[in-house]
Amino acid sequence: MQRAGTAANPLYPQGSLLSVTHLSVEEVSKILSETARLEAMAQAERAALLRGRTVALLFYESSTRTRTSFELAAKSLGATTTLVSDKSSSIEKGESLKDTGLTLRALGAECIILRHLSSGAPYVLARETGLPVLNAGDGMHEHPSQALLDLRTMLTRLQGAKAAESVNERSLDGVTVTITGDILHSRVARSNALLLPRLGARVVFCGPEKLLPEVALELGTGVEIERDFERALSRSQVVMMLRIQKERLAGMELDLSDYIHRYQLNGEKRTAFAQSAVVMHPGPMIRGLEIADEVADGPQSAIEEQVRHGLAIRSALLTRALRAGAFQG
Amino acid sequence: MSETLILNGHLIDPANRVDAPCDLLLRDGRVAAVERPGGLRGAEAAETIDASGLIVAPGLVDVHVHLREPGQTYKESIATGTAAAAAGGFTSVVAMPNTVPVNDTVAKLEWMLDLARGPVVKLFAMPAATIGSMGEKLTDFEALRAAGAVGFTDDGKPVLEDDVMRAALVAAARAEVPVSQHAEDTRLTGGCSMNAGPMAFRLGLRGMPVEAESRIVERDIQLLREIEQAEGLRPHLHVQHVSTARAIKAIRTAKREGLHVTCEIAPHHFALTEEAVDDYDTHAKMNPPLRAEMDRAEMVEALLDGTADCIATDHAPHAAFEKRQEFERAPNGITGLETALGVALRVLHRGHGMTLSRILELMSTTPAAITSLAGRGGLGQGHYADLVLFDAGAEWTYDAKSSRSKSRNTPFDGAPMLGQVRYTISEGRIVYRA
């Protein structure tokens, strides 16, 4: 029977990030401080950190933000990157995840960033290659780097840049984060709900039963369900909207016009119930569906900042994976 | 003439209500004599086994194994699977029909049962209930029964259609064998890879609801009722690998009602829960899936109170490369023949005070009766000399690398076991010794 790893004897290669549950609050804090340090660093100094190192991006699903930001982050640190996607590789010919990983390792990859449509795939890759693996989104499971960048975005908006340099168990005391939409299929929702309450936040899930089953409550303490969007908005400091994932709704009948009526964040609802709340969206967003233009582009929107924080957080995760920068030794 | 004496052991033979020190004489593959200690003094035999400190019992019977031959011998063969059976104390195993091709004709059944396949212990088989296990047209129950079938099943899949299952139960009743049902409403389990619940939600895996099992069990029981009333027949429904409290409840009620329902429970369903799936361990992936603690506890209860009739392993070998992939892609199933007794003794005997006699009833007497294996499942004079000799107090650790199976897909690698098999004797031949 498999046993959970310990700090002294990790089950997965050091530097891996497969799930936010594998990070202690202390480690989250260290990632945030390294993020701030790297951001402030002169470009030339930063580009020396991973010089000569090789990072592979292995993408079985399409991605704009995550892929580009990991790639740009690696390049800004001086690493060589290579991108393998399912559409233009031997994956199309039926090569297994294990063999693809071993091939990348043989070609010199020291870390693999994996986006995969199957929950848990990064665990397989880490076990089989022994390389640090960064989970860039696996099925409906987790998207840990997204939760970290969301955390940094929130802290910066609510408490200022300085506050985003470290965290403890009480950093988000009194903060309520409402996550609205397709919770069932969302890896972003899971990662945030598994991370934010450990820093003091309350996470409120909002959405219809079909997209938000009651079992979601059991993700952990600090998570609750509020079906009424307006009530949820009125108590939130942060509102995170999720995309309706048409590709995952197979066989599920969802009345989109009713959904829009009840759960779309538009200017009217925002003004009436969440005047000062920070508006977030992990992207890609479908304007006119879960979010209206005026909110996505409005002054409360932190959506573009999220993308910028993504680049910064992922730089820190790469130095952690390759034991460089503050994670050396 | 080959004779074996087994001296100084403690015989537990539930079929003959024996639980006492006894000596046995085996002759020509049969039990020649069972005597109180010393009663066989003077008897001569080619081989004498000193069974001091050992339990002597009828060989274990597993009504649910996958031996993968023909068609998938990279996973297992009849020879290797039955060697694993011998190492686990089993002397009779019943092969499921989901081979490649599916065992659905007399010719295929005869090929499988041919001694040329090299079975180490006695091999029986349940052919498919429907042609190709497609759930549409029944196989020839009468001819297959005459060729040795001990039941019919589309295992791996349910017989889903009401009218097909009804016809299968009627035909099986006439052939006097059970229909062994894999109870899963596959309309509720598409794309699912574990038990539905908090764990599946957290892991982002689609979950199989408990209703997928209980609904089919309830439907099948209703069919039994209808057939008894309409046809005057008494069909025998055997429910495979029960995993949910709900299905147990339905079976318990049906038994009280007097319907002919039996069921099996797999060791993993009374020993493990869905927690074992954490970290996407594909060795904890099987169908039916590991369930919640409440369901696991109910499996133990059902074994204790008699609702469950037998323990069956659902031994399902898979090659390493098949299991070492994404959880949702990995095939269902684990090996189980070598760990069944050790897990049963640890969990049921030590953990819940179940008597050894009851465990042997669950692992030998009753499974032999369910499949009507004449002369097996008990050690009366004249019965087959199918025996297991084990040290009930021995603690050991299972090492999958040492398995006699071709495959290593077990969640019990490195797990503590209680009770170690020392000898397995099949029709008088020692087929395993440790």
Question: Keywords, please?
Answer:
heterodimer; A: 329 residues; alpha/beta; Rossmann fold; four-stranded parallel β-sheet; 36% helix; globular; disordered N terminus; B: 434 residues; TIM Barrel; 12 helices
End-to-end Cα distance of chain A:
32 Å
| Total number of distinct structural domains of chain B | 1
Characterize the overall form of chain B. globular
Largest sheet of chain B: 8 strands, mixed
Q: Could you tell me which chain pair has the largest interface and how many residues each side has? A: A-B, 29 and 26 residues
Low-confidence stretches of chain A: 1-9
Topology pattern of chain B, helix = H, strand = E = EEEEEEHEHEHHEEHEHEHEHHEHHHEEE
Full CATH superfamily name of the largest domain in chain A? Aspartate/ornithine carbamoyltransferase
At the fold tier of CATH, the topology name of chain B is: TIM Barrel
Secondary-structure arrangement, i.e. CATH architecture of the largest domain in chain A = 3-Layer(aba) Sandwich
Briefly, what is this?
The complex is a heterodimer of chains A (329) and B (434). With 329 residues, chain A is an alpha/beta fold.
